[in-house]
Amino acid sequence: MGMNMKTKLRNYHAVCWDEPIIYELDRNGERAILVPEVDKKITESVGDGISSIPKSMRRKNVPQLPALSQPQVLRHFLHLSQENLGVDLNIDIGQGTCTMKYSPKINEQFANSEKITEMHPYQDESTSQGLLEIMYKTEQLFKEISGLDRFSLHPGGGAHGIYTISSIIQAYHKSCGEEGKRNEIITTIFSHPADAAAPRVKGYKTIIIYPDENGCPDIEAFKKVVSEHTAALLITNPEDTGIYNSKIAEFTKIVHNFGGLCGYDQANANGLLGITRAKEANFDLSFFNLHKTFSSPHGCGGPGSGIVGVTNKLAKFLPVPVVDYDKKNNKYFLDYDRPDSIGKVKDFYGVIPVILRAYAWIMSLGTEGLREVSNVAILNNNYTMKKILELRGVSMAFPEHKHRIEQVRYSWEKLSKETGITTEDIQRRIFDFGTHYWTSHEPWLIPEPFTIEPSESYSKDDIDEFIAILGQIVKEAYEDPKKLKNAPYKSSVHHIDHEVFDDPSKWAITWRAYKKKYNGYFQPK
Amino acid sequence: MYKIGLIVNPIAGMGGRVGLKGTDGREILQKAKSLGAISLSPKRTSVALRPLSVIQDNLKLITCPGDMGENETISCGFVSDIINGIKSKETTFADTQKAARIIRDRGVDLLLFAGGDGTARDIYIAIGTTLPVIGIPTGVKIHSAVFASSPSKAGELSLLYLQKKIHKLREVEVMDIDEQAFRNGIVKARLFGYLKIPYERRCIQGGKLGSSPSEEIIQKAIADDIIESMNNDFLYIIGPGTTTRAIMQRLGLSCTLLGVDAVYRKELKGLDLGESELLKLINKEKAKLIITPIGGQGYIFGRGNQQLSPQVIRKVKKENIIIIATCNKIVSLKGFPLLVDTGDLSLDRELNGYVQIVTNYHERAVYRVKF
Fold first, then answer.
1. Which residues of chain B are within 8 Å of residue A425 when distances are taken between CB atoms?
2. Secondary-structure class of domain B2-203 per CATH
């Protein structure tokens, strides 16, 4: 009989290496790889390889890279990996809106196969037919999943997908002679923040709808702002609250009546597969985050992919190239001959390992399997919701919505008033139990928020263990709040100075910036 | 050596327990006492001082005699310097104001004060934004954003600030409501001014102010949006508040934080204008009016900007009213609508409905106005 994690929580302790930045590990004179001298015959034949580069473009100094031996490099990255509370290490249901799930390792093997890793984007199409076929067939799968007519696999993430959608919207209105007039994008406060942010990069004004008293986007407010200036509606559904906006077809109809387009943010599609589609709600565009729903870990786990789908009338604007199939010659090819295309949004053709994993995942599940993914994810979420709401001091946003889709935004407002403990205190304490949770996108419309999304990967026992951890923390909040205030005790990193995040003058995202601004770790100059 | 000032309003909060909704005025105080009210300020102040015990050996407390601070510091085991010239019993708002000035002049790092909105108002009158302050919430009315979310949070926040673990200072609203009206069930809040507080999201009253530390950056972005769209054919009337002030700062113009100013073709046209001056200006030029709601309250007309009278608003016309607010200010309304109370019911009715609020550069929120 196994341990009962509901009654006895793990005695977890994180690894802490206090690992310096790799540049700080520099040992002058050490080397990981010694590059051999160029063979004399090669130099004689093709020259030195540098003289053909214009002088103005040549470096004056050698790159200041850290010098380390191979074991030091290995040790450094293993230390860092051990300080991570990664998706395969913990019951990762606390990272709401991120759709953390088990990504089958066989899909990693496909992506790491030499057949993929040794390919070059410029190699001849005749030698890359297998990969082009996978890309083509991935598009066909997503056409079925969404009901839309064509896809671009190019965008490298969710916000990049929204940026691409915004570019297509702009190209469409330009083709209708309305580019200057259609300068507004409407979204909602509980849609992903990138729905408001990315269109602004394209020069749009964004108009944000707040929820009505039932937690759905206020349709009366929406009606007041849709006009001949509306370029598009960009909306998430279900929103971050987990509430499905059942009036969505009414929203799209209103926008279409004014000549605008409708874009569906399906970054979080885990509760929708085989249940509802963009087409049936009359969307013209959509994007999916392959790195959430489709078998690639979200977050720091690897590169993302935010593939974009459109209806036939917008297909000509998709980025170049698209992958097509020449039936006559039984040949897959890259089609660059698309004069109305918005052009390139990224190098080459898309993030191949992520696309490959998504293809493998969908094919392994099949139609019914995909539907079951969503059904189980919804069931898990509603079970989790019932159990969490039994805890003292917790509530959920807009409680009149008894049923949620794939996630729920909860609130510790009551607990906070009664104990002084905030959601950030709990966020720090939960690390001591070997897991973590996320609060909410800004702004915090729901006070003291936290967002839980238990995808289909987690068993009832997993969910119960996570809730038992929350239960223990709630008990501590009421009995020993000081303990929570000083948490975490067993995590790799303890308190972080949040002020740094808000002050660009303290940001150091490159080694050069770090050297300029700091004398050492968190010691500003 | 850390130096903190401490002022306790010993009668703050007494009216609340006995249902008097405040303790402003001698008569109400007597009534509260006769109803059996006891002073809550000393106990709550002691709770606030407790987190500071870890730096006790390195801390110099400067406070007032008797009930206004000395007793609380003694009960917590702190040694303090007692200022001269303040009574030790039966003190009034004048003592609070005087004490604040004396303590500021003694060169403290921070002033802690215990009380409610009335006390905050006295501190504002005495020292304005010349010194960082933290309010220990002990009063009945806590509408001002200068108060920590609890007495212990006030202590924690003081400690973080003194130890330089937080550096940010923010100007936040000092509000007070009309107690007489409040006793009759009418909440009439008024913006008195601004005090400077150390800012840490978890320690400050959530509902009464914007909560993001990057508030100033957003205010600048809003100002840039407004300035970009300024039309040379219009006079711009700029209402009170820190959000509207950012416009004047971005234009490089002087302004009044609590007053109404006017700009024409990006040049200053008038400072701290009254109703008649405004009417005179808008009789000559077409005008747009830029206002911001009061955080946590939502009033866009009728509180803190009475110069913008019904006549001024009508003359400007509804379509020329531009409302600006950071997203966090909208959050502070907790879903409640923006409010209008112009004194002219038919105008209030006309202003009712949905409006667009400028919330960032090229970003608008759609929000409801009610009267």
1. 202
2. alpha beta
